[in-house]
């Protein structure tokens, strides 16, 4: 199975945010849509990814800073200050096994898929797990059907 097949099965719903957007608005979108990432786009181009990991990091930083004195609130922080401006990008021709290795190596749970200059979507760790599970389930059904239809040996 290839990344492009995961995207096809997953569908093409994509949530984006601009780099100048307020982080507080982005967090509300993440919560309301029950998603783990937002694609940060500017002038039709991918400029970063915002995930709960980046949100958690900025919140922890602000809490630590708050102990030393007042700091900007979430409503004052822009997405561009927090986003991953250099997300690991994958291509649609990668196999699921290659994708799993990349995800494991980079530690990112949401990876943008790009072909040339065209942004195609995002694959998540959850998408990969579901694809692998479905592929294994299909393989198990085929093996069971094959075994069930196993021809009997001729007696000689």
Offer a quick outline of the entry.
The protein is an alpha+beta fold and 156 residues long.
Topology:
Elements: H1 3-10, E1 16-17, H2 23-33, E2 37-42, E3 45-51, H3 52-66, H4 96-106, E4 110-115, E5 118-124, H5 125-148
Parallel strand pairs: 1-2
Antiparallel strand pairs: 2-3, 4-5
Structural commentary:
This protein is of the alpha+beta class and about 160 residues long. It has a single domain, classed as CBS-domain (Roll). About 45% of the residues lie in helices and about 20% in strands. The protein has helices spanning about 5-10, 25-35, 50-65, 95-105, 125-150; strands at about 15, 35-40, 45-50, 110-115, 120-125. The protein has a 3-stranded mixed beta sheet. A two-stranded antiparallel sheet has the order 4-5. α2 links the parallel β1 (about 15) and β2. α4 (about 95-105) runs antiparallel to α5 (about 125-150).
The fourth-level CATH homologous superfamily is CBS-domain
Total domains: 1
What is the name of the CATH class?
A: Alpha Beta
Q: So what's the overall shape?
A: elongated
């Amino acid at each position: 199975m290839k990344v492009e097949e995961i995207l096809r099965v997953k569908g093409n719903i994509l949530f984006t945010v601009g780099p100048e957007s307020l982080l507080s608005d982005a967090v509300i979108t993440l919560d309301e849509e029950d998603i783990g990432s937002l694609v940060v786009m500017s002038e039709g181009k991918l400029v970063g990814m915002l995930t709960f990991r980046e949100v958690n990091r900025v919140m922890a930083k602000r809490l630590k800073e708050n102990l030393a004195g007042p700091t900007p609130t979430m409503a004052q922080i822009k997405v561009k200050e927090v986003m991953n401006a250099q997300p690991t990008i994958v291509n649609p021709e990668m196999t699921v096994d290659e994708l799993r290795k990349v995800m494991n190596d980079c530690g990112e749970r949401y990876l943008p898929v790009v072909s040339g200059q065209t942004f195609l979507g995002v694959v998540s760790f959850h998408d990969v797990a579901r694809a692998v599970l479905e592929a294994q389930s299909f393989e198990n059904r085929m093996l069971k059907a094959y075994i069930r239809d196993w021809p009997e040996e001729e007696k000689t």
